[in-house]
Automatic annotation (TrEMBL):
Monomer. Oxidized purine nucleoside triphosphate hydrolase which is a prominent sanitizer of the oxidized nucleotide pool. Catalyzes the hydrolysis of 2-oxo-dATP (2-hydroxy-dATP) into 2-oxo-dAMP. Also has a significant hydrolase activity toward 2-oxo-ATP, 8-oxo-dGTP and 8-oxo-dATP. Through the hydrolysis of oxidized purine nucleoside triphosphates, prevents their incorporation into DNA and the subsequent transversions A:T to C:G and G:C to T:A. Also catalyzes the hydrolysis of methylated purine nucleoside triphosphate preventing their integration into DNA. GO terms for biological process: DNA protection. PROSITE patterns: NUDIX (PS51462), NUDIX_BOX (PS00893). It is an enzyme of class 3 (hydrolase). The keyword Protein transport does not apply. This is Oxidized purine nucleoside triphosphate hydrolase. The keyword Metal-binding applies. CDD domains: NUDIX_MTH1_Nudt1.
Length: 168
């Protein structure tokens, strides 16, 4: 269901890069970051980043959270997969995890500023446009596959398919 200027055959699509996102959700709040560098610098998101050779998505999610916030997420659970195609040719798939707890104290690093946010006050207007289409369902316990086409930071199309516990 692509409606932008680029038709994507998601059945044969292959990403140039693989990455992760991880959201700690605890006591009615979600731990977000303001990203300081890289893709999406300045935006609010979850900690995450690219997989290293031989690393599983879960290992990458934990490593990136440690690097970006100096905390270790406990018992991460896979919740979904994002597929991004950009008009400039860049493509990325991203595994999404949630964690109910962590060890350590979230700290600002050269990569990220930690931001605890109430679940009912997530600043979607400061995030990537796709987040509002899948993050509420993830918070509600759902699992999904999401397909998005972007022109820079402008989302041209989206298709979110709920695999388990779709949101009400």
């Amino acid at each position: 269901m692509v409606t932008g200027t680029m038709n994507v055959d998601w059945t044969t699509w292959e990403p140039k890069e693989r990455a992760t996102l991880l959201f700690v959700i605890k006591d009615g709040q979600i731990l977000l970051i303001r990203k300081k560098r890289g893709l999406g610098a300045g935006k609010i998101n979850g900690p995450g980043g690219r997989l290293e050779p031989g690393e599983t998505p879960e290992e990458a999610a934990v490593r990136e959270t440690i690097e970006e916030l100096r905390i270790t997420p406990l018992s991460p659970e896979w919740r979904g997969r994002l597929h991004f195609q950009f008009l400039d040719g860049y493509s990325l798939t991203c595994s999404v995890f949630v964690s109910p707890d962590y060890r350590g104290i979230p700290m600002e690093t050269p990569e990220a500023l930690p931001i605890w946010t109430p679940l009912d006050a997530i600043p979607y207007d400061e995030m990537w446009a796709d987040d509002a289409h899948w993050l509420p369902g993830v918070i509600a316990g759902g699992e999904f596959e999401g397909y998005f086409v972007f022109d820079g930071e402008n989302m041209l199309s989206h298709d979110v398919r709920w695999l388990k516990n779709p949101p009400l």
